[in-house]
Each structure stands twice: as structure tokens, then as C-alpha cells.
Amino acid sequence: EIVNVGFRYTTLRTTENHLIMVPNSVIMQNVVTFHGNSESDNKPVVQVDVMLGYDMPPETARLQLLKVLHDEPEVLAAPEPMVRLMSLNDSGITYQLRFYINNPADRIHVQDSIYSQVWYAVNRAGYSFPFPHRQIITAEAKKPFIFSREHIALELRQSELFAVLDDATISSLAELAPVEVFGPGEVVVREGDDGSSLFIVLKGTLEVSVDEAVVGSIHEDSFFGEMSLLTGVPRSATVRASSEVWLAEVTKQLLEPIFVSNPLVLEKLSSILAEREQRTKASQTVEGGAVAAALGQEGYLARLKLFFGL
After folding, report:
1. Per-residue pLDDT at 13 exceeds 80
2. How far apart are CA 269 and CA 237, in angstroms?
3. pLDDT at residue 112 above 50?
4. Which of 114, 168, 210, 232 has the highest CB neighbour count under 10 A?
5. Per-residue three-class SS string for the chain
6. Which fold has domain 36-124?
């Protein structure tokens, strides 16, 4: 705080309440930075670094830290506070909280409040803060993303494709299907790429684009990639995460032993695929779109047998 500007000295008050008398000649010969105040349009910016553990997904961390900033009354709503991932370190991930306040004299008070709220928010979310340490792993590493296997089994049962399987097979499939998590903006599958798996959306939303044009979205409790899983055709669209998404992946390797032990399942699946194809082509006819030649049940059955080597 500027306390007084005299003929020879300018008196300043520090955040520790010390008075400093600076000769005006020193001020005139150096660069002076104006940090703003409550009466000016130029508001002071505050940057706070927080290190969080690798077990906390970045999107979860951003949401928790942004909530702290939005809930702190001394943090201005405009300009908008932001949280940025700055570095991946030995012990954890460093995030930078950048926000504006009214008065630079309140900086230490606001930082104290922010740090305290971050501690409570992170611990309530079930995470802790990292510290320099050496970890000796004597057991198998824990899987980073865990989701209810009962929920995955329920999603499989509700799917038209997997409804042809018995409960024991679906439960086994749900236990073995890996769960993958993608952050906002990440590409899950890319148009034209080879693939042999299907994804069930357990949580989150995805954006679908063809020829780089957005054509739709995929939401929770949906699935995509069935044609690549069952026939091995290249991906027909690019699917990108719009938010943090949790996906269960059903792969060709998981289905192969099921089809080998019960070939009749292939016939049921080929009928389902043929029916879905008919519905799609009927919709294209109504909308006036181009309609490709239908494979039919026999065509799909041949493709399934060829792809799975049966």
C-alpha cells in the first residue's frame, strides 16, 4: 500500500505491516509495476500451485479446484478463474490456479483460504496430497480405474446384441472387460482405423464426426463400435470424448471362446445385424439418402465366421 508520496521519499506499507521509505530517485530510475487495486479496472492476478497425486484423474482435479475458486467470495467471477495442468513430477501432478482479486493487499489472506479449502475438498473426494517418497512395490499394481462389474453386466443385458447370451456368460464377460477412461478432447477411435472392439459408455458424453464434420453424440448407457467388433470393418467415424468418459471395452479376444463353444450365437447375432440393417436402410429411404446393397442374414453370418475363424 502507498501510504504517502513526499518530496524526497515515498512511503510504502508491506503485507507484514512494515513501513518502507523509498527515495523518489530510486523509483524514477527503475521499472514500477502496478498490481491494481479495488478502485481500478486493472485487478491483481494471483497464481497458486497445487500438487496432487497421480491417482486423481486430471479432469476430477480440475473440477474440484475450480469449485474451490468459484466458492471463495474473494475470488472475482470475471475474469473467469482457471486451472491448468503445469507439469508431471516425480511425486505428483502440479496444477496452477489462476484467479483475480480486488485488492493486492488481500493476496496472502486469499491464498491461505484457497489452500485450506483445497485440502478439505481433495480429502472429501477420497484423495490425498503427494510427498517425496520412495515406493517399493511388492504386490501387483492396482488398476487405476475401477467400475461396478454388476453395472457393466446390466449394460450388456440391456444391449440388443448381447441379449442372446446367457446370464453366466454375460457375468463372465463383464468381469473380463477392461474399463478405460478418456479425458475431454481425447480420441477414442478414429475414422478409417482398424478395430476389433466395442465400447459401452458407462459415464460421460462423446462427440461423433465423419469427414471432420460433427454428426452427433453418444451418451451414457449407449455403445459404439459393434461392426468393428463383429466383422472387423474399419471404424466408420471418429469418436472423441466431450467430457471425462468411462468406457467398458468388449474385444474380439473376449468373444472368441464364447462363439467357439456355442456357434448358434453367431446365427442369432447375424439375424440381429440384418434386422438393424433393414431398419437403417428404411430410414435412409425415407430421408432420401443413398442406400447401399444389403448384406442380409447370410451375408453377416459369413462375415462373422470369417472374422472369428469359424
Report:
1. no
2. 22
3. yes
4. 114
5. CEEEECCCEEEEECCCCCEEEEEHHHHHCCCCCCCCCCCCCCCCEEEEEEEECCCCCHHHHHHHHHHHHHHCCCCCCCCCCEEEEEEECCCCEEEEEEEECCCHHHHHHHHHHHHHHHHHHHHHCCCCCCCCCCCCCCCCCCCCCCCCHHHHHHHHHHCCCHHHCCHHHHHHHHHHCCEEEECCCCEEECCCCCCCEEEEEEECCEEEEECCEEEEEECCCCEECHHHHHHCCCCCCEEEECCCEEEEEEEHHHHHHHHHHCCHHHHHHHHHHHHHHHHHHHHHHHHCCCCCCCCHHHHHHHHHHHHHCC
6. Alpha-Beta Plaits (3.30.70)
Question: Where is pLDDT greater, at 296 or 118?
Answer: 118
Question: Per residue in 149-208, pLDDT tens?
Answer: 899 999 888 887 888 888 899 999 999 998 888 888 888 999 999 988 989 999 999 999
Topology match between the domains 36-124 and 149-251 = no
In the numeric block, which cell numbers belong to residue 128?
490425498
Structure confidence at residue 291 as a pLDDT band (50, 70, 90):
very low
- At residue 85, the pLDDT reads 96
The closest of 251, 259, 305 to 164, measured between CA atoms, is 259
**Can you tell me the distance from the alpha carbon of 143 to that of 46, in angstroms, rounded to the nearest whole number?**
37
Q: What is the largest CA-CA distance in the chain?
A: 98
Q: How far is CA 178 from CA 119, 233, 253, in A?
A: 32, 22, 12
For the stretch 50-104, pLDDT in tens is 999 999 999 999 999 999 999 898 999 999 999 999 999 988 999 999 999 988 8
Instruction: Specify the pTM.
Output: 0.61
The fold adopted by the segment(s) 149-251 is Jelly Rolls (2.60.120)
Rg, Å, the chain Cα set = 29
CB 147 within 8 Å of CB 246: yes
